[in-house]
Task: inverse folding
């Protein structure tokens, strides 16, 4: 009798193909793992998969030099055919391109979300303990990359920023992580931050999550797209992205964390404001973001918007009122 192996058994074996020498094999195996993670629902990661993911991330950081990583982030390089980052006179130690890194980032974020969801499950205490150790080791390899919010945001957007749906999906995943942490701490009355009273695994991820949170990545997204309200409207109208879903959920989160949003604006846009000697209040970062939200709201309530977005428009109005109060305070 032939034994049929489950996907949970196959996935770690598929990850082994990430070290293959042919770029198509690597891309397809990364895509398969990512699609499996999206489709499988609430089934948790297995330990072997997490360890293999950690090992591959460590391999990338240990193998790729800064100039090679910069080449992968160069948007003059096409994604349509593979261009090695290795000099022709040097052996190719790792076959990888920007699309591979793009998928790797998405898989990593999805894995973090899964690990947090299952860390307190009584059936998975041993797994949570092992994940804690694995993530401790992984975070150590990221110390240089986590040195600033801007550096890690720059990296993510240089790799994933050319695909609107990927960027929106990443923001949804990161928001989901914080919504879980918020729910986890609902009974902690003294908690001022979702990370303050989290279990061990959450604290392990704190250095990463403190820099990549729903506010910083959304504000950076707005900055990188030129604070263009028309682009936001286009994404809301598009059936190729989940921008409407994300923005509705995210603004509800902003209503509960308005002060953190204002602080994130200062954190992400502060450098740009400091560069302008004639910066006035109306052109400050928070007022630029508020102006964009106001313009989006105006379009949503106009006749030119193709469907009823009154719920989102009301949410934007509520957020704008809270932001006005936060600025005064």
Result:
């Amino acid at each position: 009798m032939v034994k049929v192996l489950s996907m949970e058994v196959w996935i770690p074996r598929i990850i082994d193909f990430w070290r293959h020498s042919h770029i198509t094999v690597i891309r397809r195996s990364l895509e398969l793992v990512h699609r499996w993670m999206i489709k499988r629902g609430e089934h948790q990661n297995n330990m072997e998969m997490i360890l293999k993911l950690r090992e591959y991330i460590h391999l990338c950081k240990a193998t790729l030099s800064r100039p090679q990583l910069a080449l992968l982030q160069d948007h003059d390089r096409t994604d349509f055919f593979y261009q090695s980052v290795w000099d022709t006179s040097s052996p190719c130690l790792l076959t990888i391109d920007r699309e591979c890194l793009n998928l790797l980032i998405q898989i990593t974020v999805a894995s973090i979300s899964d690990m947090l969801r299952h860390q307190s499950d009584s059936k998975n205490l041993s797994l949570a303990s092992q994940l804690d150790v694995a993530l401790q080791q992984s975070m150590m390899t990221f110390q240089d990359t986590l040195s600033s919010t801007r550096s890690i945001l720059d990296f993510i957007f240089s790799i994933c920023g050319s695909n609107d749906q990927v960027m929106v999906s990443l923001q949804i995943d990161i928001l989901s992580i914080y919504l879980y942490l918020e729910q986890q701490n609902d009974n902690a009355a003294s908690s001022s931050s979702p990370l303050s009273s989290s279990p061990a695994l959450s604290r392990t991820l704190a250095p990463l999550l403190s820099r990549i949170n729903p506010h910083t990545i959304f504000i950076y997204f707005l900055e990188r797209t030129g604070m263009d309200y028309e682009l936001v409207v286009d994404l809301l109208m598009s059936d190729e992205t989940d921008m409407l879903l994300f923005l509705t959920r995210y603004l509800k989160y902003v209503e509960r964390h308005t002060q953190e949003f204002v602080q994130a604006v200062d954190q992400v846009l502060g450098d740009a404001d400091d560069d302008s000697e004639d910066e006035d209040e109306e052109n400050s970062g928070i007022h630029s973001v508020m102006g964009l939200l106001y313009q989006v709201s105006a379009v949503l309530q106009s006749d030119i918007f193709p469907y009823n977005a009154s719920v989102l428009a009301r949410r934007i109005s509520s957020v704008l009122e809270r932001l006005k109060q936060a600025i005064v305070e």
DSSP finds 15 helices and no strands in the chain. The CA atoms of residues 155 and 233 lie 25 Å apart. The chain has a mean pLDDT of 81.
